[in-house]
């Protein structure tokens, strides 16, 4: 548990694709609207979590995530799912893990990065990019789905 920093404003937009846009929305979403969208985003990933709740402080751009997961990988995926959204600058991790395991390393994607390049840096082998891709599913839909400022899990 702890506080994780992210780059605010650079993450994916947290909007529901199915919502029709009648007119451009000028106002910033309320803290409750952001929290509800973050909650929906986590649920859409299909990760097993119980007692999930999400709150958001618009003044500090801090999202707090509470709940229980079975393993460290799911905990980290939930933290990254929340932190890689454009309104979030920090995630307060209040998740508990049923079976504690060592934490993964985290890497912030830079301009010009791809999974092969990151794999070469961490594993010494560009061909192990799939290990990073698999570790970040369902957050990544394909290996080219990364962007500068995004934070990824790098497993041992």
TrEMBL record:
<dbReference type="Pfam" id="PF01476">
    <property type="entry name" value="LysM"/>
</dbReference>
<dbReference type="InterPro" id="IPR018392">
    <property type="entry name" value="LysM"/>
</dbReference>
<feature type="domain" description="BON">
    <location>
        <begin position="27"/>
        <end position="99"/>
    </location>
</feature>
<dbReference type="InterPro" id="IPR036779">
    <property type="entry name" value="LysM_dom_sf"/>
</dbReference>
<dbReference type="Pfam" id="PF04972">
    <property type="entry name" value="BON"/>
</dbReference>
<dbReference type="InterPro" id="IPR052196">
    <property type="entry name" value="Bact_Kbp"/>
</dbReference>
<dbReference type="InterPro" id="IPR007055">
    <property type="entry name" value="BON_dom"/>
</dbReference>
<protein>
    <submittedName>
        <fullName>Peptidoglycan-binding protein LysM</fullName>
    </submittedName>
</protein>
<feature type="domain" description="LysM">
    <location>
        <begin position="105"/>
        <end position="154"/>
    </location>
</feature>
